[in-house]
Amino acid sequence: MRLPRRPASARDTGTVPAWVPSQEWQRPELVIWGAHGGAGTTTLANWLQPAWDMGAMRSEPNPPYPDAVARGRALLVACRNTASAARQATTAVAAVTRRGGHVTVLVVVSDGWPEPATATSRFRLLHTQTAAVIRIPFVPGLRLADDPADVPLPRQARRALDQIRTITGRPSPAP
């Protein structure tokens, strides 16, 4: 099976590969699966409602669960911006694509530190296997909040969430 080619520009998120389900038959919920624990799936599900938080990937080598749940829904794989997380994201994306599924968005959540070059190169390789790789910047207010919905998001974070909504065919919330 040939994988779809991404456009040359990594910033062009308006172009979506043909295998991304069309909005007409796609169910409204997003499915968010963590490539590892602490990837931010619960926070993303809270921000991107309606969404299902599937938790973190298990250690089994070929989990069928995310692809089966995501049928007809956009599947997002979340991970942090570390080298180890990038390796685990590669494993998670491979587990889905090996079964004929597709990851709509790889969401890379910043931990507040610069992204290592190893992680950046791995994420760049994953561009060809997903519709987009979108980075969510570090949001310091999340450390103190009981509820992520109560935290005012910086412009860059709102823009990243809007990119996810655009790629998955979801409307942006009213201002």
Strand order across the largest sheet: 2-1-3-4-5
Low-confidence stretches: 1-14
**How many beta-strand segments?**
5
CATH third-level topology:
Rossmann fold
Briefly, what CATH class? Alpha Beta
Strand content: 15-25%
Work out the radius of gyration: 15 Å
Helix content: 25-40%
Tell me the count of domains. Answer: 1
Major β-sheet profile: 5 strands, parallel
> What structural class do helix, strand and pairing data support?
alpha/beta
From the spread of the alpha carbons, the general shape counts as globular
Order of helices and strands: EHEHEHEHEH
What does this structure look like?
The chain is of the alpha/beta class and about 180 residues long. It has a single domain (about 30-165), classed as Rossmann fold. About 30% of the residues lie in helices and about 20% in strands. The chain is built from 5 helices and 5 strands. It has helices at about 40-45, 65-70, 85-100, 115-125, 155-165; strands at about 30-35, 50-55, 75-80, 105-110, 130-135. A 5-stranded parallel beta sheet has the order 2-1-3-4-5, with helices on both faces. Strand 3, helix 3 and strand 4 form a beta-alpha-beta unit. The longest helix is centred in the middle third of the chain and has 16 residues, at about 85-100. The model is unreliable at about 1-15 (pLDDT under 50).
